[in-house]
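agent> step 3/5: call structure_predict on target 'HIT domain-containing protein' (Leptospira ognonensis).
agent> reason: downstream docking stage needs a structural representation; sequence fetched in step 2, passing through unchanged.
tool.input:
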Amino acid sequence: MGSFEEHSHRKNLFSVGKLSYAKGDRPPVACILCGVRDQDALVPNLTIFETDLSVVSVNLYPYNPGHIIIFPKRHITSYSELLEAEALDIHNLTQKCLSVLEKHWHVSGFNLGYNLGKNSGGSIPHIHQHIVPRFPNEAGFLDVFANTRVVIYEPYEMLKQLRKLWEDS
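tool.output (status=ok):
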């Protein structure tokens, strides 16, 4: 039997920067999200907002415009370690993010979720929730003609837009 790629009908285009990141070429810190939390100069910081317990950040490699992550400031690797106050804080921040994106970007749907555990597809063990906006007619010509998906959105520009929207809401 051949590889998955041989049998998959969908093609993927990779960002050169993301490919090296996926292979492990990352800042030399113990935890990327703790580096964001601590504003470590070695780690790109796309923080939109933070509370005493959690951080809201643009995803460095977004799946869609507006792709946000929310994570507890406390370094934990298991969902069961979340304290009730942290879970409530993440919940409240999620509601705020959804409201901002719905109101200002006219988002018509979302995917929310955590990648938990080594085999979940997540590349960062510090737990974090993804908010991925979904838009009508997301399929572009590459999706239709080449069965390939490309997402181009500069995360630092997204950060500026989302910070302003957050403050205005």
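agent> step 4/5: record observation. The beta strands are 11-12, 47-50, 54-58, 68-72, 109-114, 129-134, 148-149.
agent> proceeding.
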